[in-house]
Specification:
Length: about 160
């Protein structure tokens, strides 16, 4: 349920977890339920303008979704020796299947101008495989389509 990075560098991802509503690590998820993605990071030295994020992919490498603290408007500063956990809400409105969660931590180089200009400090590829059980969604994702009307347009 926890994936750990073996690297020890200036900023290291210590663990990546998916937590249920009780805080228990899980890998079997129900579509439509709310979970937390928790990414724990430790700094060896003081660093500023840090973005922590994740992406979800299929087994064939196709990206399903990704986000980061920078994309959501939050950059973090770390003191040397400090450990922080970033938690993202996650509602897997996905089709039945196996998915792969990767986590990353990056130092933004121009935080005031362009958040996508960064140096990746640690990345854990396929940190956590997980399965989504769904009896409502077909296809890859639930796009929340609802029928809004039925209209008779003629008779033959």
């Amino acid at each position: 349920m926890t994936s750990q990075s073996p690297a020890l560098q200036d900023l290291t991802i210590r663990s990546t977890e998916i937590l249920d509503s009780t805080g228990k690590p899980v890998r079997g998820l129900e579509a439509g339920e709310t979970y937390l993605i928790a990414i724990t990071v430790t700094a060896v030295r003081a660093v500023k303008n840090i973005s922590i994020g994740y992406n979800i992919k299929l087994a064939n490498g196709i990206a399903v979704y990704g986000t980061s603290s920078a994309i959501q408007g939050h950059l973090l500063d770390f003191e040397g020796g400090e450990t922080k956990v970033s938690r993202f809400t996650f509602k897997p409105d996905l089709g039945l299947g196996t998915y792969y969660l990767s986590s990353g931590v990056a130092e933004t180089l121009t935080p005031e101008d362009e958040i996508h200009n960064y140096v990746m400090l640690d990345f854990v590829h396929d940190a956590l495989p997980f399965v989504v059980a769904s009896d409502k969604n077909t296809g890859l994702a639930n796009l929340k389509s609802e029928i809004i009307s039925f209209e008779k347009i003629g008779v033959q």
